[in-house]
Amino acid sequence: MTSVRLMQAYYWQCEDCGQDNYDRGVLAEFGPGEKEQAFRELHDLGPEEPLPENWDQFQLVTIPDEVECSSCHRRWTTMDDRSVE
Ligand SMILES: [Zn+2]
User: Fold this and answer.
1) pLDDT tens, N- to C-terminus, the chain (85 residues)
2) Are 27 and 61 spatial neighbours (Cβ–Cβ below 8 Å)?
3) DSSP one-letter code for 51
4) Is residue 30 part of a domain?
5) Does 57 fall in a domain?
């Protein structure tokens, strides 16, 4: 049997037609200094604590800003469900 590679994706449901959709995450892009700040926040490091070697290999996958329904092709802006209280 051959195999396929599974990747992380975000699930969402189209509010117009009810289609289940899956979209890949996108790599976050950082401005100057933002990457180090994101790394420190994610790893709970204070501003004075030393960064580990290779810390700049760090990548952050985030949700796409817009998605398109695979059935009705309506486009939607997105919100991150994890940040909703
Ligand atoms: Zn749809």
Assistant:
1) 999 999 889 999 999 999 999 999 998 889 988 999 999 999 999 999 999 999 989 888 889 999 999 999 999 999 877 655 5
2) yes
3) P
4) yes
5) yes
Report field, pTM of the whole predicted structure over 0.85: no
| Number of structural domains in the chain | 1
N residues, the chain: 85
| H/E stretch holding 23 | strand 20-24
- Ligand 1 centroid from CA 12, angstroms: 10
- Report yes or no on 40 lying in a domain: yes
Any domain includes 21: yes
CA of 73 to the centre of ligand 1 (A): 6
